[in-house]
């Protein structure tokens, strides 16, 4: 029986959403464990063995806490804000290719929710909408600290989206497509010299663009040292000061979902996505020397590629958390100066350099 394409896409989207929420939930546990390790103290160790049930306890706490609406708040928008933040965070993961094709009978399917030829724009556009959830929540709270946090978030996102978009233009110039699947496949080495596996990754062609994108990713996800919208020392809790119960949980979880998504995007755009060295040599060896069917060998390579992609994603998530407990928070004027006077000019220079290298045939 053939599996309809729409049915397969529905399954993949459901699994991606479920995995995103699970990773976001256990990112809270990883954050505490990593913080405890870096600060030489004991982390969560009460709920379950090694504290592994702590995220579940936090979820129960969020669901059972008292609902609170501040006086003078716009109740409809007060509820809509965190919902929009979570929805946009989850939507951006739908176009990320988490693996190559799997073969079932006569059908081949990609491990990707939906494939659109503007996947890069989809991620960029949907992530940009997430700031509206922050803005709406901050304004609807009827609290001056929440409003200041929302204004900071909007200014910060607008400033760093420019540099992030310009850094992506250089990748677009090299790949010639906005499809995340095509960008990933172009970083493979089938038919090329075997040692070109890693050298095909865009990080080798765009080191400056990757650094710009990485810095902007910290600002877009409101992570330290760019967590000015929720700066406790100045704004109590920022845009979610007045939130409690699961509405606060949606804001907190959406931040970790965004970290997961931006880590996946960086892995796909710059680190080869699901590609890994010697993948095609391993596939051909299994098919020729071990008697595997070519489809079965390809399925194994796809599974290994997906596991390695998640390994790259988890490495970036660890980096996000490592930076949080290592660097101090920027001042707001330093944050804006970095975006407008340093990152944007560097991104423009990177575009000019990339264009010159393409023109003279150095990058193909």
UniProtKB/TrEMBL annotation:
Coiled coil region boundaries: none
Residues spanning the membrane: 6-29, 77-99, 119-140, 160-178, 198-219, 256-280, 300-323, 335-363
UniProt keyword Disulfide bond present: no
GO molecular function: oxidoreductase activity
Catalytic function, reaction form: a quinone + NADH + 5 H(+)(in) = a quinol + NAD(+) + 4 H(+)(out)
Membrane topology: Multi-pass membrane protein
Keyword terms: Cell membrane, Membrane, NAD, Oxidoreductase, Quinone, Translocase, Transmembrane, Transmembrane helix, Ubiquinone
Signal peptide (UniProt feature, chain positions): none
Enzyme class: translocase
UniProt entry tagged with the keyword Translocase: yes
EC number: 7.1.1.-
PROSITE patterns: COMPLEX1_ND1_1 (PS00667), COMPLEX1_ND1_2 (PS00668)
Localisation: Cell membrane; Membrane
Major site of localization recorded for this protein: membrane
Membership in a protein family: Belongs to the complex I subunit 1 family.
Quaternary structure and interacting proteins, as annotated: NDH-1 is composed of 14 different subunits. Subunits NuoA, H, J, K, L, M, N constitute the membrane sector of the complex.
Function in brief: NDH-1 shuttles electrons from NADH, via FMN and iron-sulfur (Fe-S) centers, to quinones in the respiratory chain. The immediate electron acceptor for the enzyme in this species is believed to be ubiquinone. Couples the redox reaction to proton translocation (for every two electrons transferred, four hydrogen ions are translocated across the cytoplasmic membrane), and thus conserves the redox energy in a proton gradient. This subunit may bind ubiquinone.
HAMAP family, per database record: NDH1_NuoH (MF_01350)
Protein name as it appears in the record: NADH-quinone oxidoreductase subunit H
Protein species of origin: Hymenobacter tibetensis
Organismal lineage: Bacteria, Pseudomonadati, Bacteroidota, Cytophagia, Cytophagales
Gene of this entry: nuoH
